[in-house]
Write a structure and sequence with these properties.
The chain is α/β, with parallel strands linked by helices. Helix content is 43%, strand content 18%. The protein is built from eleven helices and eleven strands. Strands 1, 2, 3, 4, 5 and 6 form a six-stranded mixed sheet that branches. A five-stranded mixed sheet has the order 9-8-7-10-11, with helices on both faces.
């Protein structure tokens, strides 16, 4: 069994003889087609597969950011079909941390990475919240938080917003002298869509240092994260996952003390879920190649 977690920042893969007998985790660049484009995403996925070297007879499960969009799902179908990996399931990447958290039982996972999403399976009901992408806003995501931090920085620089350490941090981050330089940096056609996500860690850092504007932004976003979870079917088990999960933990736990960051790498959730679906005899998602 092999599994891959294809995210907006990193693509990780692992191959296991059994659930608890796995080789090393392989890591490459991002494989979110919507964020980095098909060429870059395919390249990262191909590099992971080259190391894992799965046989066509092996079952594999791949969780990929954006895979619940029909065009993205069909694109990855073609990718794995061309490599004769017909025994493959393709799901949204949120299934993996959910499986790592619950082992297939009831529970809710809150993904807080480049994007954000709430995924819940409770009492036979499967629902999700968020995951709308950068055009509509992913509450608590690195991309959304980075955008909001930069927006507040620009307002401070122009004098239309509250003074904040975000202003100087944004200029240093973009290596710009003024607002015009910052805007030119952000709108450079060569700059990837996900670029503002790299500013998000600075928002957390400045909040820890006492910047009131950063603290207010994080408090408001934490409330938005909780609202997403509260609108989904109620589960007693709630976990946080993603590259920003640990940074968000102290903010959301002031509102929901029982929530915790999952300790297991989500890529192992692909193995757990794949093993479960193999046992159930669930049909693969790739039409046999000829």
């Amino acid at each position: 069994m092999w599994g891959i977690d294809g995210g907006g920042s990193t693509t990780r893969g692992v191959r296991c003889e059994r659930i608890h007998d796995c080789g090393p985790v392989v890591a490459q660049g991002p494989s979110n087609i919507l964020a980095v484009g098909q060429v870059t995403a395919y390249q990262a996925m191909a590099q992971v597969l080259e190391v894992l070297n799965p046989s066509p007879q092996e079952s594999g499960l791949v969780g990929i950011a954006g895979a619940d969009r029909p065009a993205v799902w069909e694109s990855w179908q073609a990718f794995f079909r061309d490599r004769h990996l017909d025994h493959t399931w393709i799901v949204g990447d949120y299934w993996l941390p959910w499986a790592a958290l619950t082992g297939g039982a009831d529970g809710t996972i809150v993904i807080l990475g480049t994007g954000s999403l709430v995924f819940s399976v409770c009492q036979g009901k499967t629902e999700r919240r968020g995951g709308y992408g950068w055009k509509l806003g992913d509450t608590g995501s690195g991309l959304w938080l980075g955008q909001q931090g930069l927006r507040l920085a620009v307002q401070a620089l122009e004098g239309t917003g509250e003074p904040t350490a975000l202003a100087e941090a944004a200029l240093q981050w973009a290596q710009a002298r003024d607002v015009v330089g910052l805007i030119n940096y952000l709108y450079d056609p060569s700059r990837p869509v996900r670029a503002p996500a790299d500013f998000a860690p600075l928002v957390f850092a400045l909040a820890r240092e006492g910047d009131l504007v950063s603290q207010k932004l994080l408090t408001e976003e934490a409330y938005g994260i909780v609202c997403m979870v509260d609108s989904a079917p109620a589960c007693s088990l709630v976990g946080l996952s993603g590259g920003l999960a640990k940074a968000w933990e102290p903010y959301v736990r002031t509102l929901r003390p029982s929530w915790r960051v999952i300790s297991e790498n989500p890529v192992y959730g692909a193995i757990r879920l794949g093993a479960l679906w193999e046992q159930e005899g669930r049909p693969y998602h790739i039409e046999p190649s000829h």
